Amino acid sequence: MSRGCLGLLALLASLGRADPTWRPLPFPLAPAPRWVHAMAWDPLRERVIVFGGVTWGAGGRLERDHFWAWDGASWRFLPASPGPALRLAALAFEPARGRAVVYGLGEGYDAVETWVWDGTRWERRFPQAQPPRLCGIGMVHDEARARSVLVGYDCFQNTSTNAHTWVPNRQLARAARKIPAYRRRCAAV
Questions:
Q1: Residue 7 Rama label (left phi>0; alpha psi -120 to 50; beta)
Q2: pLDDT tens per residue across span 108-121
Q3: Region of poorest pLDDT, from 86-90, 124-128, 177-181
């Protein structure tokens, strides 16, 4: 298990008692409840970072490009201007570079975008090769190989044999197997 995972587990363990039941924690400032968001552990600042997601409000479905941090005691909104306006995003933190990498679909779901966050500002990247428009995505940083790994399926191919695994600068083997419906929203730690 990576140090990042152990740090996240230690942080989560510090929140509760020996009692394994969940309990709500009251916060005056916290992100709205959301789904389809991206989350990663930032071992340099010892915090969980959360990007994007979808919330429901008076106007219906709201897509968010917010960036939040949880240090084990409180939430902090991380202002990011200008920053990505991504949908269906995946996030990984790269400790050796001190940055978070976010992959997702731009406005209208028709463009793939890659952004990096250095702790204070966002910068859009334009890699020569990019994955197709992926849905059900998850991303994690592989410390042993010093690279982030992105998995998902091509949302615009109507087949169940379109699984993808990507790493920076090259594509790994495209999996030719069915992805069960219940696994179409990936999560990685």
A1: alpha
A2: 767 888 999 988 88
A3: 177-181
Domains located in the chain, CATH noted: 3-15+34-183 (2.120.10.80)
Question: What tokens does 149 get?
Answer: 């790994």
Rounded Cα distance, 109 and 50, in Å: 20
Question: What residues contact 62, with CB distance under 8 A and at least 6 apart?
Answer: 54, 55, 56
Q: Do residues 141 and 109 make contact, with C-beta atoms less than 8 angstroms apart?
A: no
List, in sequence order, the alpha helices (H) in the chain: 3-15
Q: What is the dihedral of CA 10, 16, 20, 23, to 10 degrees?
A: -130
141 burial level (CB within 10 Å; 0-12, 13-18, 19+): buried
